[in-house]
Design a protein that fits this description.
Layout lengths: L19 H17 L5 H8 L3 H4 L1 H24 L1 H21 L3 H29 L5 H12 L1 H17 L2 H21 L14 H12 L2 H31 L4 H29 L1 H24 L5 H27 L6 H26 L5 H21 L8
Helix pairs in contact: 1-6, 1-7, 1-8, 1-9, 4-5, 4-6, 4-15, 5-6, 5-9, 6-15, 7-12, 7-14, 8-12, 11-14, 11-15, 11-16, 12-13, 12-14, 13-14, 13-16
């Protein structure tokens, strides 16, 4: 049988005139750019505001809390009122919050503005995930996500490099100015080019009884947990590096700030490689086996990191190699996890995407808190967290496994 290549995938006829995939890619890029673009500035924020590392980590943790909590609201809102209006209001909030971040006079206001920024960012990501379900046939959704993920990897790949140079040249505020410009461009594109894709609006989606019914339906599905849980743990494994790599590389291993972005980008290139591998594995083995392969790489990444640190290899290359392997595993795990969590729920796509995203953010918040609180000037805490998460991803796939059939 001849396999249809991912590059030939097109949206359903009503959306063929709109740049749906390009908008999905841009919206999904907001989340990694919102964190990665200012990673190189974390040590500077600590010294500039005279705040401890744990307080500076709150600019990440509060973003995660806001992003995670909002998904429980944004998803149902888009199921009831449509994707377009929720997206427009959310991107507008993101623009304003990014400008507030850039103008923050102290760490407290920056943390508050980051929380507001997360609320706006959430609308872009959640609605983009729901649009995939709306605008593409169910059999194509996992391949659409894998294809988009290959392009999305450019954000964590180039974001830290750009952020490092912005930090050296202009200071930490420049990163948030750049984010406000990007979100303004996305807002204009949505207003001008994106049609409404929700053809099954549910007027009861935001009613308490309707919410409860939809939540029971999604949370009671074994297929949802078989994909959302491994995906959340896999996201937690990369968030450990997002929250801890700048402190480890710059403070512990002495990597210059302007070189941090390159180190992080080398590691993040594993995500691009992982998404490409995922696109090759899906037609050959199917989604279930692909997820098993990705989870095995997750376990190997964490084990290699801890073993290297235990052997006394305190070098930047150890961190970069471990990040590369962890990102590669997530590049395989994420497309399968996202598609498998949302595809079974055509009437509740926003709710399912919101619950999946909230689970991702809960795990990320817990991981970020542990990494920030356990930082002791060595590589051991980050290595221990990474290994534990790799084991958790591997175990969750085996314990919750249920086949996901993808029609070729």
């Amino acid at each position: 049988m001849t396999m249809r290549q991912p590059d030939t995938i097109a949206p359903l006829a009503p959306y063929a005139h709109a740049p749906v995939l390009l908008l999905i890619i841009g919206l999904l890029m907001l989340q990694p750019l919102s964190t990665d673009l200012y990673l190189a500035s974390l040590p500077s924020l600590a010294s500039g505001f005279g705040a401890p590392a744990a307080t500076v980590q709150l600019t990440l943790s509060m973003f995660v809390i806001g992003f995670g909590g909002a998904q429980l609201i944004v998803g149902p809102l888009s199921d009831r009122f449509g994707r377009r209006p929720v997206l427009i209001w959310g991107l507008s909030l993101y623009v304003v919050a990014s400008l507030l971040c850039a103008a923050a006079p102290d760490i407290t206001l920056l943390i508050v503005a980051r929380f507001l920024q997360a609320l706006g960012c959430c609308s872009g990501v959640i609605v983009a995930r729901a649009i995939v379900r709306d605008a593409y046939p169910p059999a194509d959704s996992v391949r659409v996500i894998a294809r988009a993920s290959s392009w999305i990897s450019l954000a964590p790949l180039t974001g830290p490099i750009l952020g490092s140079y912005l930090q050296v040249a202009f200071g930490w505020r420049a990163a948030f100015v750049a984010l406000s410009v990007l979100s303004l461009l996305l807002l204009a594109a949505v207003v001008l080019r994106l049609p409404e894709t929700n053809m099954h609006k549910n007027p009861r989606a935001t009613d308490l009884s309707g919410l409860a019914q939809n939540y029971r339906l999604v949370l009671g599905s074994r297929q949802f947990w078989a994909h959302a849980l491994p995906g959340a743990l896999s996201f937690g494994s990369i968030f450990a590096f997002i929250s801890g790599s700048s402190l480890v590389l710059i403070r512990v291993l002495g990597v210059p700030t302007e070189w941090f972005g390159y180190c992080f980008a080398i590691g993040v290139s594993g995500y691009l490689a992982g998404t490409i591998v995922c696109r090759r594995l899906l037609p050959l083995f199917g989604a279930a086996v692909t997820l098993r392969i990705g989870s095995t790489v997750s376990l190997a990444a964490g084990a290699v990191f801890l073993a290297a640190v235990g052997a006394g290899l305190a070098h930047w290359s150890v961190v970069v190699l471990s990040l590369f392997m962890t990102m590669g595993a997530h590049g395989v795990n994420f497309p399968v996890s996202q598609s498998g969590s949302v595809t079974p729920f055509p009437q509740q796509a926003g709710t399912a995407a919101g619950l999946m995203g909230a689970l991702y953010m809960c795990v990320a918040f817990a991981v970020g808190s542990v990494v920030g609180a356990s930082f002791d000037g060595t590589l051991y805490p980050l290595a221990l967290v990474s290994c534990a998460l790799g084991l958790a991803v591997f175990a969750s796939v085996r314990l919750t496994a249920t086949p996901l059939r993808v029609t070729q």
